């Protein structure tokens, strides 16, 4: 009942929350086969929302069983294909683990009917840029289906990496990398020989595969260094506005992954040297009141964009005022009331959907009462103006940073450009590909 309405509401909300969503190697998703989507879990529930909103197939999800305690929640979650899974670490979870028997039986049934099931196989949520070990539950579900419904079922297990540029930040990017599927049939002979060996083998193979699709910062103490290098790399090309959702762009993930692996491979001394250079460069940026985009894309700050900014200001202002209240409360509540980092973005997204829905109801009721055609037109265009206001603000900030860089004296501009180039040079053979990213 609620699945498809929420699917398209989530698609709109996600398209607002993220600047761009890229699916890399989208063609690896099997068609017409039983599929276990195996992904990492950096946020509370954005990962399931992404797959449900954008994949053409109906998706079923395994989620924390303690969320099903209240009858109303249980009814809603059942309607949107959520399946409870009980963990020992959850409150009272150790007393409810036996309930997983019914969950596993239901997953077996879904896979026997060629359905797609998404499992957050790390078993917990943690907002890190790192591939974590997978639990054996995924393998047990796959082999359990064969035991219950026949050894000829062609289950495909697909490793998926969810890579957020800044998971807790509004208007960041999401890079999703889809790996080559593992066919359960390839492990059947080992399973028939030794079940535990088959569980371990499949789980280990999936874990290794996930590492190739998750941008992994190995030196977590130097996370800021990695993030600075990511930023430098991203700013080598202008961000496009549309399409928000792209299933054909593999380069974004590949370059981000390559950059991370290059920094991972540096020796301690090389990484320390790179850290000193990036710290000095970003300190200089702060001292001059600009960011790296302004240096990398200084031509963006030309005077020819001023007429665009002037003409677009009134629609921006209307959109910003009209959507200020729901946006403010969603941001404020998630920031001040949600303590766990992994839940902030998810709660903000959910609250945003709820508050905008309430605002839409209020506006429609007001339009019925006022009975003026122009107010109905305003009700229809407000969502578009709200989204336009986000794009306008980002456009202005980028233009202003580039303009401010161009107002610096020539010596300071040259110094910043030199510092930036020295950072790329420290990355050795990757410096040229970085500079040629488009």
- Write the CATH homologous superfamily of the largest domain: Glycerol-3-phosphate (1)-acyltransferase
CATH topology of the largest domain: Glycerol-3-phosphate (1)-acyltransferase
**What is the CATH domain class of the largest domain?**
Alpha Beta
User: What order do the helices and strands follow?
Assistant: HEEHEHEHHEHEEEHHHEHHHHHHHH
Description:
- This protein is of the alpha/beta class and 438 residues long.
- The protein folds into three domains: 3-216, Glycerol-3-phosphate (1)-acyltransferase, CATH 3.40.1130.10; 222-288 and 411-435, no CATH class; 303-407, no CATH class.
- It is built from 17 helices and nine strands.
- It has helices spanning 3-17, 46-54, 71-79, 93-96, 100-112, 137-149, 188-193, 195-211, 223-234, 251-265, 268-287, 292-296, 306-337, 341-370, 373-407, 410-426, 431-435; strands at 18-24, 35-39, 59-64, 82-85, 116-120, 156-164, 172-178, 182-183, 245-246.
- Strands 1, 2, 3, 4, 5, 6, 7, 8 and 9 form a nine-stranded mixed β-sheet that branches.
- Helix 6 (137-149) crosses helix 8 (195-211).
- The protein is globular.
- Residues 430-438 have low confidence and may be disordered.
């Amino acid at each position: 009942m609620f699945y498809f309405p929420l699917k398209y509401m989530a698609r709109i909300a996600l398209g607002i929350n993220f600047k761009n969503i890229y699916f890399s190697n989208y063609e690896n998703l099997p068609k017409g086969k039983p599929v276990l989507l195996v992904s990492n879990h950096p946020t509370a529930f954005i990962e399931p929302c992404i797959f449900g909103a954008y994949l053409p197939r109906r998706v079923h999800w395994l989620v924390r069983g303690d969320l099903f305690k209240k009858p109303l929640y249980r009814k809603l979650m059942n309607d949107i294909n959520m399946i409870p899974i009980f963990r020992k670490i959850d409150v009272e979870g150790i007393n409810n683990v036996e309930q997983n028997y019914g969950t596993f039986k239901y997953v077996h049934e879904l896979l026997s009917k060629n359905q797609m099931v998404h499992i957050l196989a790390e078993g917990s949520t943690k907002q890190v840029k790192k591939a974590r070990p997978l639990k054996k539950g995924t393998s047990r579900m796959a082999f359990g289906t064969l035991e219950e419904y026949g050894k000829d079922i062609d289950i495909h297990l697909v490793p998926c990496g969810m890579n957020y540029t800044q998971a807790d930040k509004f208007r960041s990017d999401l890079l999703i990398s889809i790996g080559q599927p593992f066919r359960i049939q390839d492990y059947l002979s080992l399973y028939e020989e030794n079940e535990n060996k088959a569980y371990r083998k499949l789980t280990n193979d999936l874990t290794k595969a996930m590492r190739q699709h998750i941008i992994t910062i190995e030196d977590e103490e130097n996370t800021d260094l990695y993030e600075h290098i990511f930023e430098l790399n991203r700013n080598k090309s202008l961000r496009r506005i549309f399409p928000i959702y792209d299933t054909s762009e593999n380069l974004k993930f590949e370059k981000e992954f390559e950059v991370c692996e290059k920094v991972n491979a540096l020796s301690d001394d090389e990484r320390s040297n790179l850290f000193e250079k990036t710290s000095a460069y970003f300190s200089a940026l702060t001292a001059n009141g600009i960011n790296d985009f302004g240096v990398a894309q200084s031509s963006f700050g030309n005077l020819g964009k001023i007429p665009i900014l002037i003409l677009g200001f009134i629609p921006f202002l209307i959109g910003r005022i009209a959507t200020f209240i729901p946006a403010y409360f969603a941001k404020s509540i998630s920031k001040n009331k949600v303590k766990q980092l992994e839940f902030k973005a998810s709660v903000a997204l959910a609250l945003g959907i709820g508050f905008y829905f309430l605002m839409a109801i209020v506006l429609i009721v007001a339009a019925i009462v006022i009975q003026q055609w122009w107010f109905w037109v305003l009700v229809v265009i407000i969502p578009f103006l709200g989204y336009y206001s986000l794009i306008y603000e980002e456009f202005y900030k980028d233009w202003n940073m580039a303009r401010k860089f161009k107002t610096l004296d020539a010596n300071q501009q040259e110094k910043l450009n030199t510092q930036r180039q020295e950072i790329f040079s420290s990355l050795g053979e990757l410096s040229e590909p970085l500079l040629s990213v488009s």
